[in-house]
Each structure stands twice: as structure tokens, then as C-alpha cells.
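Notes to self after the call with IL:
- keep both proteins in one doc
- input above output, always
- annotate only the second one for now

Protein 1:
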Amino acid sequence: MITRDDVLAAHSRIRAHIRRTPTVQVAAPSTPLWIKCEFMQYTGCFKARGALNRVMAAQELGELDPQVGIVAASGGNAGLANAYAAARVGVPATVFVPETAPPVKVARILAYGAEVRRVGTEYAEAYTAAIDFAEQSGAVFCHAYDQIEVAAGAGTLVDETIDDEPSIETVIVAVGGGGLLAGVLAGLDGRAQVVAVEPTAAPTLNAALRAGTPVDVSVSGIAADSLGASRVGKIAFDVARRFGVESVLVDDSAIISAREQLWNEYRIVAEHGAAAAYAALSSGVYAPSRDERVAVLISGANTAPATLATGGSRSGRAGNLGVSVPPSLGTNASGASGGIHVSSADQNHHCVEPGLSRSRNAGRKTATRPSTSIGSDNARNVACSPAASASGPAMISPSGPAA
């Protein structure tokens, strides 16, 4: 069972090896709103936290053979995160990927110094091969989401968020396999409510809450590359039942619209899975009470920025946050998206860490918080500086001046 103590231990362990990503307040007409800019994390995704915690914890326990290293199965963000973690610690990494894995992500995994093995056409085949490799070689197996160390590492970001803005009442998080959700719930330990957002085409948590146990679901849709687990993890399901979450679903049109809005208004390049969290607000599927203080976790930026110019229609609507967008830059015409509520008791973003070999960048200092009040275009320039520092979260105004 994951607890807040696991998250605190993880933060102590990995603090010197991650960026403390900024929490910025954004202008919204009726709801005080903050964005946790985790898309700035090394590898361009929150998963670097969990991978580091898993690898470093295994090292502390004497389980990590420095000659054999680690093994993971993923053609996406988890593969990048584990390759990065192994490079940071200085051990080999073997990453099994399906033959259908995006070449650009495979190239980045290789750039971190990992060995890539292509097996089968589906993730399940790569996963089985990775398990077999771990058993035969003695490599430490690093799950994409369903291990205590992985979830606890992911949860370290929410302590930073609450430390930046203690008044936050609600945290909105996208869910795939549930590692981030589990870590956030454990890290908060009841200090704020959590809204779990999933695509309608991959409703793993929603289906589990309805069934009373994790169940397999079919997976498709625009966010399947990052929110494509076919079953929510047991750790996430258990902690969701323990603390209680509100589960909401957003459709592809809402995700596309939210992703475009993040770019048009704040110059945030978010992958579709990360934009799903924001879609809960912009589509109206989750409607905060007036003056409810909300934080949205934007957890990854491993996407092709060129697609921002082609996704969605050009209606000029920007969802329900009251932001006016010129018709030429507008978001999806559908506006609000229907949602289901369940209550329970690649080209990559310019901010991501460049290729890291096993011999480089050990002991890099972590980032601290920016304090400058910034407009939408120069927000990117402040946020992308890992050395920015301050005493509180920044403020982004959609109507602010260009840099």
C-alpha cells in the first residue's frame, strides 16, 4: 500500500536529479487556476521521477547489478524515463519496444544510451519479453506505472505544487495506468480533492470503479500513445478507493481543443495525454464551484509541435474558461464534451533534456520556482529556464504582452 511516507522518501532520494518544475497561475474568469508545468521535466514527462526513484531505491537495497542494470518495456515516455534514469545512475538499460513504436521516440531512447530490442507488434509482447529478460539476466524490472517506487516518485510533483500554492483545493490529473494518480493521492493524503481524467476511448479507472475491480478495456483514441494502458494498476485502484476520486471522461475532440488552447494561450506544447487533464475544465466536464482553487497537472510534452497547426477546427471557441481566441487560432468547434462521472470512497518540446549518455550530467542541480509576472509569449522563456528561482508561483495572463 502506497503512503505519503513513500512519496516523501522518494522526494528525498531523487531531489538532486530532477527539475523542480514551476507552478504558474493562469488568468481564468471565475476559478483561480494554476498549472503545474511538469512538461518541463527531464525527458519531457513526469515519468522521469518514478523511474529515478525505482532505480535508485533498487541501488540502495543492493538489488541493482551495475553490470546488468535495468529493463523496461515501453516505446514511449516510460522507455525514455527509464533510459534517462539508468544513464543518470550510470548503469545499463535495456528497453523492449513493439515493432510499431514511433521511430522518433526509439531514437531518443537510444540517445540516452539504452539498448533497444524490438519484439512483436503490441506492447503486451514487449512486456512479456522484458519480464523474461529480467528473470534470466537479473536486471531490475521497472514497470511503467504499477510499482510503489514508480508511483511514489511520480507523486513528488504534487508536494511541490502544494508547497508553491498551499491554498489549492482541487488537483486535476490525467490517468492511463494510474501511476501518477496513485502518487498524487498518496502525496496529498487528503489535503485536496483529486479529479481523475481519462479519454472516453481508454477508461481504465472509470471502468474499474464501476466494476469494483480492475478490468481490461479496449484502448483507442488520440491519447492512446500515453494514456493507452488496457487496465488500471492495482496500486492506483486501491489508493483511489481509499481516498476517493471523481472520475470523468473526455472525448477526443475535447482533448484536441484543450491541447490547442494550451498552445494558443500559454505557448505550452502538450502531448494529447497531458492535455486531457486540462480538457476536463475547458470542455466543462468538470465544473469547479466559483472561486474553487484548482491546479491542473500538465504532465508531458513529447509530441510533434507541427500537429498543433492541424488538429481540431477553427471556430474561435476556447471552451468554458472564458478565454477569447482569434478565429485563425481557435479550438475545436464542439466546445463542451459529454462526460461520465463516477464517485468512489516525435519532435519534442524545446524544454526537454537533450540526449544524456551514462557518463554525463551527474549531480545536476534541480530547478527552483520562478516569481516573475509574465505574459503568454514570454511565459515560455521563463518557464524553460531550469535555473529560474523565486519565492512563489508565476502568473501567466493570456492577454499579457509579447516578449
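Protein 2 (the one to annotate):
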Amino acid sequence: MQNEVLPNVTSVRDLGINVTNYLSPSDHLCDIAAKAHKRASLIHRYFVSRNTDLLIRAYKVYVRQLLEYNSVVWSPSTIHDIETIESAQRRFTENTRISQFFLQVTFTEFKLTKPRTSQAIN
């Protein structure tokens, strides 16, 4: 390194995962939740069909992969982090049930499982 001083950084992106100096996945989770919300919005905006099965299939192909990519590495451990990830799926299912707004939507109604996460620590 020829006597060069390395700069101090608070976070770095490696293999698509944001790693901070305090090793919390919160920043990474916020980033992928925002990307998932954007992709889910695009599905609702550009898919002409309102067929629930088609929308769920599009969600699984285009959005779900973002929420589960390398989840073993950044596995959320706090309730806030888990809710951040699950909010993307919850928002999608709420927007998908436009004609069924009187029903309480759960993940099982659309045959979806919650994104893979670890146990929560308060």
C-alpha cells in the first residue's frame, strides 16, 4: 500500500449486502424493502390484469427474490427489522385485494409464506 492511509468508512457494499461498521442489518433491510416496494408498485401499475393468481406469481418472481437474497447473511434479529421486511409483502397483499377490502388479508389467503427470517429479539 506504499504508506497510503485507508479512509474511514461507516458502511460498504459487498456482494449486494450493505455492511455497516456496527454490523446491524437495518440499513440493508431498509434498502431492500424500498426496492421491493418500488417493484411491487410497478407490478400493480403495469399489469393490466387484476387476476390475483397472476399478480402473486409476478410478486414471487420479481419482488420476493429481493427480500430473500442472502437472508442467511443479513438475517434480521429485531422485531423492527422483521417488520420492515414483512411490510413489503403486507403492502403488496393489501393492494392486491382491492375488491376484497372488507376481508382481513393474511399471508395464507394468498398462499404466501412470510419471508425467511430468524427469531426476533426485542
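Annotation: Strands lie at 11-14, 17-20. Confidence is low (pLDDT under 50) at residues 98-106.
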